[in-house]
Amino acid sequence: MSMPAPNARSTLHLPQGNWATVLDCLCAHFPAIDRSTWADRFVRGRVLGADGQPLQATHPYQVGLKVYYFREVPDEKPIPFEEQILHLDEHLLVADKPHFLPVMPAGEYVNETLLARLSKRVGDPDLVPIHRIDRLTAGLVLFSTNPESRGRYQALFRERKIDKRYEAICPALPDLDFPRDERLHMVDGEPFFLMKRGDGEPNSETRIEVLERRGELWRYALYPVTGRKHQLRLQMATLGAGICNDPFYPELLERGRRDQDDYANPLKLLARGLEFQDPLTGELRQFESRLQLDW
């Protein structure tokens, strides 16, 4: 089992209960993890208190106590693609994320994430992504390197003061006029990880342009105004041009196929550009991915 990255830790405020120790509480709260595994984590200093110091397995339980713990995945599968750092300063890090690499630890991924790799590479355990893109999407991700200025940059996304540009390769849509503004009311779908079109006022918006036409496939530029989960993937599928190699939209592949990453056929979606006025200096910042979508 590999050692988790320094910032791969998770936080838990201990819930209401009548346990004697923190160990007892964690075992009850996470029943899928056996007691011996938790005990071993305590021995190795992988369970910390609010002050960042290791806790003993005998530490008394206290409701609301803040506990940090490190998720660990045995035999974590390596992802055979490398990220690139495009920019690094005292406030920001901009990286090109390859297809298939998650931004944050989740599920079966702890060390094989963009956050963990970059944290180790630049020696910054406090690195934090300011936004995220899907694991299957490639391209630009912006990170904060300075806790003091982090909120100013996070506000750019919250207040829609950052321009994002994506590229996608999808089937041709010769019967539609471009450029076009696509608006859609998006709601949670089934299974839980999907989104679907619903009734009501639009809550998502994307500007769509055509960059290149090659027979039955076109390259599109996508400018999302909103940032809802799977927005671009669902909107293109709703138009009748689902993004090439998408295992979710317009049809969900059966689990065996979608759980097996096909490295030769990545999702043809790229976070190409980011542009914003720096909230600290007022200067215009522009970043461009160096990755390319192959036809």
TrEMBL record:
PANTHER family: MITOCHONDRIAL RNA PSEUDOURIDINE SYNTHASE (PTHR21600), PSEUDOURIDINE SYNTHASE RSUA_RLUA-LIKE DOMAIN-CONTAINING PROTEIN (PTHR21600:SF84). Residues 91-237 form the Pseudouridine synthase RsuA/RluA-like domain. It comes from Stutzerimonas zhaodongensis. It comes from the Bacteria. This is Pseudouridine synthase. Pfam families: PseudoU_synth_2 (PF00849).
